[in-house]
Design goal:
Elements: H1 9-13, H2 18-23, E1 30-34, H3 38-45, E2 48-53, E3 58-62, E4 66-70, E5 76-81, E6 87-92, E7 98-103, E8 107-112, E9 118-122, E10 129-132, E11 144-147, E12 150-156, E13 162-169, E14 176-180, E15 183-187, E16 191-196, E17 201-207, E18 221-226, E19 229-234, E20 237-245, E21 257-266, E22 270-277, E23 280-286, E24 288-291, E25 296-299, E26 303-309, E27 314-321, E28 336-339, E29 345-350, E30 353-359, H4 362-371, H5 375-384, H6 394-407, H7 411-421, H8 426-438, H9 442-446, H10 458-471, H11 473-482, H12 490-503, H13 508-520, H14 524-534, H15 539-546, H16 556-562, H17 564-573, H18 580-586, H19 591-604, H20 613-623, H21 628-634, H22 640-649, H23 653-662, H24 666-677, H25 680-690, H26 693-703, H27 707-716, H28 723-728, H29 739-779, E31 808-812, E32 817-819, H30 836-840, E33 848-853
Antiparallel strand pairs: 1-30, 2-3, 3-4, 4-5, 6-7, 7-8, 8-9, 10-11, 11-12, 12-13, 14-15, 15-16, 16-17, 18-19, 19-20, 20-21, 22-23, 23-26, 24-25, 26-27, 28-29, 29-30, 31-32, 31-33
Helix pairs in contact: 4-5, 5-6, 6-7, 10-11, 10-12, 11-13, 12-13, 13-14, 14-15, 16-17, 17-19, 19-20, 20-22, 21-23, 22-23, 23-24, 24-25, 24-26
Subcellular location: Cytoplasm, Cytosol; Early endosome membrane; Endosome membrane; Late endosome membrane
Keywords: Autophagy, Cytoplasm, Cytoplasmic vesicle, Endosome, Golgi apparatus, Lysosome, Membrane, Metal-binding, Protein transport, Transport, Zinc, Zinc-finger
Biased composition (Acidic residues): 15-26
């Protein structure tokens, strides 16, 4: 059961079930308000019996025979005293210009609201219903129907007289009638009939379901949804009937229209009225409750439900219990439901009360969300529909949401919503900051304060920074990093930090923050001192960003101790600002750091620090021997004697061997390899690099009495030295490890060399033959000679203008052409001729390939 909420809570509470409102979490679909003003006065002394609704006004009938015309707000515009007894029904045409009224004393009156013409008749029985033709004002015939014991049709003929026709009789009292377009639907004691006014035929009879209910106590409710859909409610049964056109082939003697029931279902309570709402139904129910204590049924509040019809059942969308006045005294027949065709308004009529139900708009939706304290959803709904809401303001809803969050101690969410709700309203921002200060939650709102183009007064930011400085150094540091320095008075904050450092001088967080503040204040030297003292990673970024190289000339050792790699890279990248000599001077007392700097300098450029290469020999020997040999190989400025002396003093054999070989003493170098390293493979590699026959002889001589060395030589010298020279010098009887394998390898290598030579020979012969054939084809190929060719000697056309004359032309393989008489009589070799141009360019001359004569 959903909650019901009107435009004003106090008024709505008068006729809605407030106990259900408190428990319901489902938003109601409709809102309600009591029709007051003139209606209140009427119902105070009289009782409503019927009402009809037009888009522009209302017509209300009472039990004392009066009819009132009301505006939409319930104010009386006209009053008619038509009878002394109950008005049973009022009918209006579509234009609202004519009204039809019937009463319990048998009177029927049809007249124009703006004209004097009309129909007045009294019958000897009560007339329960009347219905005007929808186009009554425009029609010349002025048709309408009345219902008592029979259904009568009245129409004006061409003599301006009223003609009466009986449409139906004999089935009891006509209790309801509705006229839509050319279709008239009415209900009597047995069921509902539909009459086609265009064909003058009755097309259906929908039987009544529950015949045990008295028709006068539980009357039938009829409602046209459109020109072809009739909704029938009777007792606790609802049927939806659709009028359709019959297929011409099936007509025979049947009407050309028929009715199909597309939905039929039963309800829990008795139906008092029906109205369409899009594809749903609005239903008014009469409710009786059974009391166990008193063992009797009592009349409860009527219910207004919105239901979704299905073919054989329905789905309840919403259900509202209405506390209308004197509902305990009302019966089912006392309630009526009328609706407006234009705007979806639904009027619940009871003898002492009239309630208007209308669809809830976005403002009502927001009201409900606020009442349920669903502030976030209310704010979202207001933002989405801000153009359509009339009674609410997005910012006010947002402020209510923030207040709600603060009351629930959800300070972080409240602070986060400030950013969205407060927007650019600086006054609201400052009020909220002071409120958060009062409740001790400045930290919560600090990260959401505006800090871009829109800013608060500096005092606000300083207040928050001082708060953090008292309680949270890390949070204070975070704000200093995130907030631009222009938001607050930098000097005031620096002074505050210094005051705290007096009590805690080694606090790294405060020192780092102070360095950042000095940076904002462009006092980079002070910031640099703190960063170096803390060995902070941002020191290099600070130096680069603000070009502080002049300030670090005397702090190079500190920088190197902090991070050698970054310091050296920075110094080398900015050599134009801090020279190599200056760096070497500063690092002179720290040779291990000097070595790192000079080593990276050498890696970048072998020549830039050449004057320090002599010093680097000792540094490499002391701190980085693995890189000493590569340094000696790559450096062309290193004094070899000094390097040899250092290497010999430290007994660096590999480095000494390299230096000896570089100085030309290869025999001594080979001797060190053999004697001190005892590495035959390295000795062989050294001999291969030098490619000196005497070194090979010394190597063989040294190895001849050492079987392992002989094995190594046999395995590796086959391609450089004739193995026979080694084999002949091996003493008889000497045991040589793996001799057989070594000899096999020698033979294999020899065979491989032979095969390579033969293969190369075959390739050479094949290539020579191919090139010779190609040259032969080229030299035997014809050469085109025409008027476009010229003699390379006299530069005239190679062919005479008169082809009848005799001429002689010589064409060389290089494609140069000459008149024969333009060539020298003989070449360098008797009996041969050569191209003068190719000979002059020192190219191999081409010989004449063609001589043309005529």
């Amino acid at each position: 059961m959903s909650e019901v909420e009107g435009q004003e809570r106090k008024q709505s509470g008068e006729f809605t079930d407030e106990s259900e409102e408190e428990d319901s979490e489902e938003e109601p679909k409709l809102k309600y308000e009591r029709l007051s003003n003139g209606v209140t006065e009427i119902l105070h002394s009289d009782a409503a019996s019927c009402m009809t609704v037009h888009d522009k006004f209302l017509a209300l009938g009472t039990h004392f025979g009066k009819v009132f015309l009301l505006d939409i707000q319930g104010n009386i515009t006209q009053k008619f005293d038509l009878s002394s007894v109950k008005i049973n029904q009022i009918s209006l045409d579509e234009s609202g210009e004519h009204v039809g009224i019937c009463s319990e004393d048998g009177k029927v009156q049809v007249f124009g609201l703006y004209t004097r013409e009309g129909f007045h008749e009294s019958f000897d029985c009560p007339i329960k219903v009347v219905a005007l033709h929808p186009q009554f004002s425009r029609s010349n015939y002025k048709q309408f129907v009345t219902g008592g014991n029979k259904l009568l049709l009245y129409e004006r003929n061409w003599l301006n007289r009223w003609k009466t026709s009986v449409l139906h009789e004999g089935e009891g009292t006509i209790t309801n009638v509705k006229w839509r377009a050319n279709l008239i639907a009415w209900a009597n004691n047995l069921g509902v009939k539909i009459y086609d006014f265009s064909t003058k035929q009755r097309i259906t009879n929908v039987l009544r379901d529950n015949v045990s209910l008295r028709p006068d106590m539980y009357p039938c409710s009829l409602c046209w949804k459109d020109d072809a859909t009739l909704i029938v409610g009777w007792g606790n049964s609802i049927k939806i009937c659709v009028v359709k056109v019959r297929n011409p082939t099936e007509m025979r003697d049947l009407p050309n229209r028929y009715v199909e029931i597309v939905s039929a279902f039963e309800t829990e309570f008795f139906i008092c009225g029906l109205a369409p709402l899009a594809d749903q139904l609005v239903s008014l129910f009469f409710v009786q409750e059974y009391l166990d204590q008193m063992d009797e049924e009592v009349r409860a509040r009527p219910r207004l439900d919105i239901i979704q019809p299905l073919p054989e059942s329905c789905e309840e969308i919403s259900s509202d219990a209405l506390s209308v006045r004197c509902y305990q005294d009302n019966e089912c027949r006392d309630y009526r439901l009328e609706h407006s065709e234009g705007e979806p308004l639904f009027y619940i009529i009871s003898p002492k009360d009239i309630v208007v139900a209308k669809e809830r708009d976005q403002d009502d939706h927001i009201d409900w969300l606020l009442e349920k304290k669903k502030y976030e959803e209310a704010l979202m709904a207001a933002e989405i529909s801000f153009k359509n809401i009339k009674r609410h303001d997005v910012q006010k809803i947002g402020m209510a949401y923030i207040n709600h969050l603060v009351e629930n101690r959800d300070y972080d969410t409240a602070a986060r919503k400030c950013q969205k709700v407060l927007g650019k309203n600086m006054e609201l921002w400052e009020n909220e900051v002071y409120r958060f200060k009062t409740i001790g939650q400045l930290k919560a709102i600090s990260q959401y304060l505006p800090r871009g183009d829109l800013r608060l007064r500096p005092a606000i930011y300083e207040m928050i920074l001082h708060e953090f400085l008292k309680t949270d150094y890390e949070g204070f540091a975070t704000l200093i990093r995130e907030w631009p320095g222009e938001l607050y008075n930098n000097m005031a904050i620096v002074q505050a930090v210094n005051d705290h450092l007096k009590r805690d001088p080694t606090n790294s967080t405060l020192l780092t923050t102070l360095a950042e503040l000095y940076t904002y204040d462009q006092r980079y030297d002070r910031a640099l001192e703190i960063y170096l003292r803390l060995r902070h990673k941002d020191v290099y970024q600070l130096i680069h960003k603000h070009n502080l190289f002049s300030s670090i000339e005397d702090k190079i050792v500190l920088l190197m101790e902090f991070d050698k790699e970054k310091a050296v890279d920075m110094l080398l990248d900015n050599e134009d600002k801090i020279s190599i000599d200056r760096v070497v001077q500063e690092l002179d007392g720290r040779p291990e750091l000097l070595h790192v700097y000079l080593h990276k300098l050498f890696k970048r450029d072998h020549h830039r620090g050449q004057k320090y290469h002599e010093r680097q020999i000792g540094l490499y020997a002391e701190y980085d021997r693995p890189n000493l040999l590569p340094f000696l190989r790559d450096s062309t400025h290193c004094p070899l004697e000094k390097a040899l002396e250092i290497c010999q003093q430290r007994n660096f054999v590999e480095e000494t061997v390299f230096l000896l070989s570089r100085m030309g003493n290869c025999r001594r170098a080979l001797q060190m390899i053999m004697e001190e390293l005892e590495d035959v493979d390295k000795a062989i590699e050294f001999a291969k690099e030098q490619d000196d026959a005497e070194l090979w002889e010394d190597l063989i001589s040294y190895s001849i009495d050492k079987p392992p060395f002989i094995t190594g030589l046999l395995n590796n010298i086959g391609t450089h030295v004739d193995p026979i020279l080694l084999i002949k010098r091996i003493k008889e009887g000497m045991e040589i490890p793996n001799l057989r394998d070594s000899l096999v390898k020698i033979l294999h290598d020899y065979n491989l060399q032979i095969l390579l030579r033969e293969g190369c020979k075959k390739i050479l012969v094949a290539d020579s033959l191919s090139l010779l054939q190609k040259m032969h084809r080229t030299q035997t190929r014809a050469v085109r000679v025409d008027e476009g060719n010229i003699c390379e000697s006299c530069h005239s056309s190679i062919l005479p203008s008169d082809m009848a004359q005799s001429f002689s032309v010589v064409v060389f393989h290089c494609r140069h052409m000459f008149h024969k008489e333009c060539l020298p009589s003989s070449g360098p070799i008797p009996g041969t001729q050569f191209c003068n141009i190719c000979s002059a360019k020192k190219r191999r001359p081409g010989s004449g390939i063609l001589e043309m004569k005529k």
